[in-house]
Amino acid sequence: MKNTIRVCIFLASIAMIFSAACKKNIEVKAPGTSTEPQASGQPAQPKDFSANFKFISKAENFAGKIFSTKDKTRMEIPQSTIITRADKNVVWVVMPGGKMYVEYPLQQKNMAAGFHKLPNEVSRKFIASEIVNGHKADKYMVTYTVGSNQDTIYQWIVSDMGMPIKTAAIDNSWSYEYDNVQPLTETPGMFEVPEMYKEFKMPSQDSESITHY
Predict the structure, then answer these.
(1) Of 63, 93, 108, 198, which is least packed with CB atoms within 10 Å of its CB?
(2) pTM (global) more than 0.70
(3) Other C-beta atoms within 10 Å of 72: how many?
């Protein structure tokens, strides 16, 4: 159970793509040319959305539904719902079968993989334009620091949507992507723990190192 919760926290963290400001002109380097801003200019401002998602790694595979606003996300996977509240710096892993939930702090270092502009970003190199789930996306190799460590990932950015539609480890150990992206219709309680649910304390509760799952 603990490993499943850890992966849920990882998913919730990389889902917070819309809490990053998408206001920076991305510098790209097309093959055989010098580095220059994209012709399309600044990416579109992210909007509230819902989508199908899938997460694939060497150890765990997940698929489900995500609902996202600027500072809140709700991810529905079999047996669990993960609610991320950047406005409260908290993640709730809700387990309907037991009518309980686990609470974790939302830490900036655990939110890096899904951002359009990563915290502590060191470099961003344009690789190529590709089609991902029916959308034209610009693929980048992005290097950033997490604490005293440095990591590199791939992002596929759809500029007119203001979002990375896919994010993946540089060694292909995991990938995370969206499909069927639609405008969000928010319902009451969507980003809250249901009433009467009890908090469950995990032994040695820990959310460390989840971005390197």
Answers:
(1) 198
(2) yes
(3) 21
Residue 152 Cα distances to 68, 138, 148, 168, angstroms: 25, 16, 14, 9
Q: Which residue is associated with the tokens 């190529």?
A: 128
DSSP annotation of 42 reads S
CB 30 within 8 A of CB 158: no
Spatial contact of 72 and 191, defined as CB atoms under 8 Å apart: yes
Q: CA 21 to CA 209: how far, in whole Å?
A: 24
142 contacts 154 by C-beta, under 8 angstroms: yes
For 97-156, the pLDDT digits (tens) are 999 999 988 765 444 444 455 667 889 999 999 999 999 999 999 898 877 888 899 999
Output the CA–CA distances (angstroms, integers) from residue 145 to 21, 62, 115, 120, 142, in the order listed: 18, 27, 13, 6, 10
Tokens of 120: 């502590």
What gap in Å lies between CA 154 and CA 5, rounded to an integer? 25
How far CA 105 is from CA of 76, 83, 88, 163, in Å, comes to 19, 12, 9, 24
